[in-house]
Write a structure and sequence with these properties.
about 350 residues, alpha/beta, Rossmann fold, seven-stranded mixed β-sheet, four-stranded mixed β-sheet, 11 strands, about 30% helix, binds S-adenosylmethionine, methyltransferase activity, N-terminal protein N-methyltransferase activity, MeTrfase_NTM1
């Protein structure tokens, strides 16, 4: 355990700690601690599982017995212990959110900035997201939504990277929500008609300078609510209440896409930007509390090894009905690997 703590101290997430993996102290948020100190028993059962379509258990609130770490190597026996310290009273909660936004206020409004110094992951990120989105649109909408007026919300949009490179090509209207004003201004500029290559019937419409925990969408406006690399800033209670409000913002048959770093087990608290990287088990517990179902999930490929694994979840408010699945039917007489 001690040795693991020491190795965690080499984490590239720690500013000023120049090490062979990542000499750039700005590289942040995406970089995983080298070795997560977690309960080894839990680690065995919390391995990331890339399979799809998990039906959620009933919406019960249980105490999570998942241990975790912070970026200084401190261990917490469960999330409650950590949240009590971080957001246990209104002053602490205020500080948690202002430190989180304060971190990003000091970051340059660029792709490199919002990707924590890993600008080169933009391309594999977008292409994997696009493949996932295409699968979902084909399953959810007749003719993959091509003849429908589709509307999306890009949450924690930063400078509008996801909207510009992906969402605006598939959705007629995209709204952006981002609490850091210089990012949102950059998004407005990046998405202005003169800087866009898409036709006029695809446009960024509303730019909300608000954090997720304070946002309530207009009822029934969105086909898709996209939440990428920002939900870690929300404490568990705000995570749940955000999704509860956001569900009302979906059109009937709409869905969420959550794309996020995954802790291999437990959780990892970043003391600097006030964000939490959760494991798959942790996310599933929160989805249950939100009354959300995992319709599909897909793991990101092609990122540098030192980064956290990244997973995309498609989440629905109804138990998934698998109509018109595009998966190939397996023929019983097809040769198969003998297990
Ligand atoms: C890693 S960047 C990702 C930006 C964008 N989603 C992307 O993929 O390019 C994290 C973003 O989360 C935003 N953020 C921080 N706290 C937030 C909060 N409480 N609510 C919504 N967004 C938040 C930051 O300002 C920043 O733009």
């Amino acid at each position: 355990m001690k040795e693991k703590h020491c190795r965690l101290g080499l984490s590239p997430r720690r500013p000023g700690n120049k090490n062979i993996l990542n000499p750039n102290p700005q590289k942040h948020m995406f970089a995983a601690p080298i070795n997560l100190c977690v309960n080894p028993l839990l680690a065995a059962t919390h391995q990331a599982n890339g399979s799809s379509s998990v039906r959620a258990r009933p919406n019960t609130k249980t105490q999570m017995e998942i241990s975790g770490l912070d970026s200084n190597g401190r261990q917490f026996k469960n999330p409650d212990e950590m949240w009590q310290e971080e957001v246990g009273d209104s002053q602490k909660k205020h500080d948690w959110y202002s430190n989180g936004v304060g971190y990003w206020q000091g970051v340059e409004a660029s792709v490199e900035g919002v990707l924590g110094g890993y600008g080169h992951v933009n391309e594999p990120d977008i292409s994997t997201s696009e493949a996932f989105l295409n699968t979902l649109l084909a399953r959810f909408f007749p003719d993959a939504g091509r003849n429908q007026h589709l509307v999306a919300l890009d949450c924690g949009s930063g400078i509008g990277r996801v909207t510009k490179n992906l969402l605006i090509r598939y959705f007629n209207e995209v709204d952006l929500l981002e609490p850091v004003s210089h990012f949102l201004e950059a998004a407005r500029e990046n998405l202005s008609p003169e800087n866009m290559m898409v036709s006029g019937d695809h446009k960024a419409v509303n730019f909300y300078c608000t954090p997720l925990q304070e946002f309530t969408p207009d009822a029934g406006r969105y086909d898709v609510i996209w939440i990428q690399w920002c939900i870690g800033h929300l404490a568990d209670d705000d995570f749940v209440s955000f999704f509860e409000r956001a569900k009302a913002g979906l059109k009937p048959g709409g869905f969420f896409v959550l794309k996020e770093n995954l802790a291999r087990s437990g959780f990892v608290l970043d003391n600097e930007d006030k964000s939490l990287t959760r494991s798959h088990v942790y996310f599933k517990e929160l989805f249950n509390r939100c009354g959300l179902h995992i319709y599909e999930m897909k793991d990101q490929k092609g990122f540098p090894d030192e980064l956290f694994p990244v997973r995309m979840y498609a989440l629905t408010t109804e138990i998934p009905k698998r109509v018109g699945t595009s998966r190939p039917k397996r023929k019983s007489n097809r040769p198969a690997v003998i297990k």
